[in-house]
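Re: that chain you flagged

S.,

Sorry for the slow reply, it's been a week of failed gels. I finally had a moment to sit down with the sequence you sent. For the record, here it is as I used it:
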Amino acid sequence: WLGLTGTQQDVAHFAHLGGLLGGWIGYRYIRR
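Prediction finished late last night. Pasting the structure tokens below so you have them in one place:
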């Protein structure tokens, strides 16, 4: 996993993007 070899900032950035993507997918799924 890339996060294990990245810096703490990279891990936080990856988690943030994952959260946004997950939230968007969940929103689209509910609104369908």
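What I noticed first: Residues 6 and 12 are 10 Å apart (CA to CA).

Talk soon,
D.
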